[in-house]
C-alpha cells in the first residue's frame, strides 16, 4: 500500500465507499461477537460458581453464640435436585448456543479462483501436468 493512513480502503480500491462500509460492518461484527463471547463466558462462570457454592456450601449451618460455635452439615434433599439441575443446565445451554452461533454464522465469501491451495495440492498438479506432458512428447 502506498497510503500510510489508518483507513485500509483509501487508495487501493475502485469503490472506496463500498470497501469502507464493508470494513466498518466487519469491525462492528467482530466487536459485537467479542462482547457476546465475554458476556456468555461470564454468565457460565457465574452459574458454575453458584452451582459449586450450592452443592458444597449450601447445606452447611453455622451457629455462633456468646460462648459457643457449632457447625453442622445436612444432606441434600429431594427439593434441591431442581436447583442443581437448573444451575448445571443453563450454562451448558449457553455454551451450546454460543458454539452454534459461531458455527452457523455467515462466513465471508471467498473466490475459489483466488483461494490459496495447499502446497501438496499444487505439487500434485505440477506432477500430473509434468507426467501428462512427458506422455505427449514421444
SSE inventory with pairings:
Blueprint lengths: L15 H42 L2 E5 L4 E5 L7 H24 L14 H18 L2
Antiparallel strand pairs: 1-2
Annotation keywords:
two-stranded antiparallel ribbon, single chain, 61% helix, elongated, 138 residues
Task: Describe what you observe in this structure.
The chain is mainly α. The chain has a domain at 16-110. It is built from 3 helices and 2 strands; from the N terminus they run αββαα. The chain has helices at 16-57, 81-104, 119-136; strands spanning 60-64, 69-73. Strand 1 (60-64) and strand 2 (69-73) form a beta hairpin. Helix 1 packs antiparallel against helix 2 (81-104).
Structural class: mainly alpha
Indicate the multimeric state: single chain
Shape: elongated
In DSSP terms (H or I, runs of 4 or more residues), the helix count works out at 3
Rg measurement, Å: 30 Å
Calculate the terminal CA-CA distance, rounded to whole Å: 48 Å
Helical content band: 55-70%
Helix/strand order, N-terminal first = HEEHH
* Relative strand content: 5-15%
Q: What characterizes the major β-sheet?
A: 2 strands, antiparallel
- Care to count the β-strands? 2
What's the arrangement of strands in the largest beta sheet?
Answer: 1-2
The whole-number mean of residue pLDDT values reads: 79
Contiguous uncertain segments of 5+ residues: none
